Amino acid sequence: MNNQATRxxxxxxxLLAGAAPAIVPAHAxxxxxxxxxxxxxxxxALIGCGNMGPAGVFGNVIKNPDVQIIAMCDVFKxxxxxxxxxxxxxxxxxxxxxxxxxxxxxxxxxxxxxxxxTGDYWHVPIAIHAVRNGKDVYVEKPLGxxxxxxRILRKEINDRKAVFQFGTWQRSQRHFRxxxxxxxxxxxxxxxxxxxxxxxxxxxxxxxxxxxxxxLSKMHVEGLQSQVPPADLDYDMWLGPAPAAFYSPARVTPDxxxxxxxxxxxxxxxxGIHSVDIAQWGLGTDGTVPVSYRGTCKWPSARGIxxxxxxxxxxxxxxxxxxxxxxDWKTAQPVITAYRPDCDHGTTFFGExxxxxxxRGAVYVSDKEWKWDKIEWGEKDTQLLASAQDNQWxxxxxxxxxRKPTVDPxxxxxxxxxxxxxxxxxxxxxxxxxxxxxxxxxxxxGDLAMHLDRTARKPWEKLIGEA
Length: 467
Fold this sequence. Notes:
- With about 475 residues, the chain is an alpha/beta fold.
- It has helices at about 5-15, 25-35, 50-60, 75-90, 100-105, 120-130, 145-160, 175-185, 215-220, 235-240, 255-260, 265-270, 270-285, 330-335, 390-400, 410-430, 460-465, and strands at about 40-45, 65-75, 95-100, 115, 135-140, 165, 190-200, 290-300, 310-315, 325-330, 345-350, 355-360, 365, 435, 440-445.
């Protein structure tokens, strides 16, 4: 069969039907010709236009010549319409839709892939629905609030061979990759232990939750006052699978979604996943997780709407015997400043020959001769996967088009997220938590299993389904 004729026939039929966009989606051409070609755009939509998503989309995706953004979706009408208008202004078109319901968006046949940048509690349910509708997914971190839901997503992605990219974008940064390669290739000798730390609720917004003058603290108290939702917001859809709750402005802010337990695990996952993810990458343990966890935590000192832990201090032990000390920044400060400049996040690998520490700003080493930016590897050395153009979003689009694995696929996301869940469980209970990495079950402490999962509010449990 003549492939060119096939494509012309497909285009003619679609245009006559009046249903095709000016850009032919890559998945349609794959179905006709087996693979995308440079002349075919990958069609993309953003679900969640308020915080993390727009930064990536307008900073990266919209500049990608292989992509056409065709829709913006959000529960705030003004937000989705403003973002759609911004897309049209950039493209010089009027074709970007402003979708109110993600289900209608995901039913579109002209859509290849989506980024899901909603509150944490919505990440996995929407991703499950997206994959079941044939879409590839970029899911913002952390993965979600329920290990059971994440298992379902993992199965759907693997069964359907969908492309998945996690939002832990540090893996797309060259200096993070090089630092992990140095560890994997034995520059520091055999790894003995790891330190990973990230901001807690009490170490962002200047004074944090316990400073009565901070914005976060004031929001914490004011958030307990019930108000009428604005007409601009579909509040019931915003709540989605989470329990029914009164509306207050604090609840629907990014901080609300980070620090209210109905919607998140707190910064131990929301920020901590970044540092844990790099620890996993450098250790070469993406396929497993630590087998035991012990630790402590702190809670906000005043009563208010934010009810996740504000600080944590957890020891996670791998089957190999290597321990990861996982902390919030305030807890970590006296630990890390003993050997490197202070920073509110980072991951340090300690070995027989010294240490390597990496954060978003730099790579620090115990031996000045270890120059990460000068090192070159041989064929037999470990060379970690790099994202296209060292960019998380370009890497995702490249994988959508080529069907090659992303730098952080679903298995990586599931295990990194699980470490955050289990660390939190150890911290809030004060018990030592043992985990069987093969069966993916708690060893003992069966009464705590409920803390790893959630029950979706009706009717959203039907959207999630069963594995």
